[in-house]
Amino acid sequence: MTEMMKKLSTVERRQRIERILGILAIVTLIIAWIIGAFGSRSNIMPAINKAIPEADHFSHYQNHGSEIYFAWADSGEEVLLGYVALGEGNGYGGPMQMAVAISPEGEVLTAEIISHKDSPSWMSRVLESSLIADLAGKSYSDSYEIGNDIDGVTSATYTSRGIAAAAQDAARKIALEEGWPITAKPNPKIVFGIPEISLLVLYAVGYFGQKSGFKYKKQARWVSMIVGMVVLGFMYNSPLTLSYINKLLLGFWPQWQTHLHWYILIGGILFVFTVDNKNPYCEWFCPFGAAQECLGAIGGAKTRSPGKYRTFLKWLQRGLAWSAIFFALLFRNPGLTSYEVFGTLFDFVGSNFQFGLLGLILIASLFIRRPWCTYLCPLRPVEGFIRMIRKWIIGLWPKRKKTA
Amino acid sequence: MAEKKKNRLKEMMPNIILILVIICSVLIIMEVSSPISAELETFNEQEVIQSTIVPPSGPSPTYPPDITPASGY
Lengths: 404, 73
Prior knowledge:
Mean pLDDT of chain A: 86
Number of strands of chain B: 1
Helix content of chain A: 55-70%
Structural class of chain A: alpha+beta
Order of helices and strands of chain A: HHEEEEEHHHHHHHHHHHHH
Structural class of chain B: mainly alpha
Oligomer: heterodimer
Number of helices of chain B: 1
Mean pLDDT of chain B: 68
Number of domains of chain A: 2
Low-confidence stretches of chain B: 46-73
Strand content of chain B: under 5%
Order of helices and strands of chain B: HE
Largest interface: A-B, 76 and 43 residues
Strand order of the largest sheet of chain A: 1-2-3-4-5
Number of helices of chain A: 15
Strand content of chain A: 5-15%
């Protein structure tokens, strides 16, 4: 009896410590968010200068929230060389801003990214492409549509779209200011394709498949995992990453018409979690989880116990996740610290560290069941945190009712 | 003999997992440390990143200005 009571008090003590640290995590993240929101401001003037380097001076005009810079040459009489405007678009990680120079005839001269929120490896892929160079010569009245009059960068569709939208935004601001004829901006097309449909189907399968009494649970789970791995992984490389969560926390909610996938993924998890307290994504159709399980099936992987290191490894995983969110909020950059290696596997994009990490994880997957998910994935601590808060709130509810 | 080997491997498994996770964590820290330190350097300063593009060839436009600059720079 006393032994049991001792055990109970240990559990309670651990629970209390976890709650205190949970609150501390929230407080520090709020502080990071506040510092990030008020501390970071971009100095745009060097980018403006760089946009039309021949200009002797610039004059600045601000109207209805649009900032336009007129570039002048002072050789004898003042000659207008062009305009520079700041355009905004939405990339993979969040908003991006571009300085776009337009000639007096209305054609793009130069374009430069001032700020962005995308992962460095993805952005460098875009920068190495001819996407930005191809903007030169485009008219202010063009459609700036990826796949139509602009070639996007494979596997960086959202970033490409963001750049095109920012360039168009800047060009239109100048056209509007100069009274050039422009057509009304068409409403964005709703992007609803194979990844979105697959996600909805996978959620449905995951939700019903987890119900007890479902006869073909094992088979349904394997089908769901393979579909997730092929469609969300190798075909579209759009698994849930920490940058999705950071975007949500930072308020960088993208346009729903073009980012339905983001809303379905985040909304679906939150919905099923609230209703069912279950996470259908990780176990049922996470593409990276599925890849690990496939390797595990080949190598005969088992759930291995970390023994006396269990607590240390749990807190290491939590610490990594907390640090990644903290710095993302501090620098207002969702993809900055997103350390998942999903893109490295599904698109072969990444640094040497990421390829090294991926190699280790894949080898470990042959004999340990889902090593990434168990020990390193930052989404597991996030899930655990939401679960703890949910349990805490539910636990408080009847007590209040009783005291009332 | 095989059973003995199996037991030994089982005993060693926590240490293997620990070493593996620590190596992976070091790789993660090395991966994210460079963008973080770059951000720290530019924090509160200017952050201009990108490439330039070659302006289209041809003479520079020489249109007379028909606007009045709002403020000089």
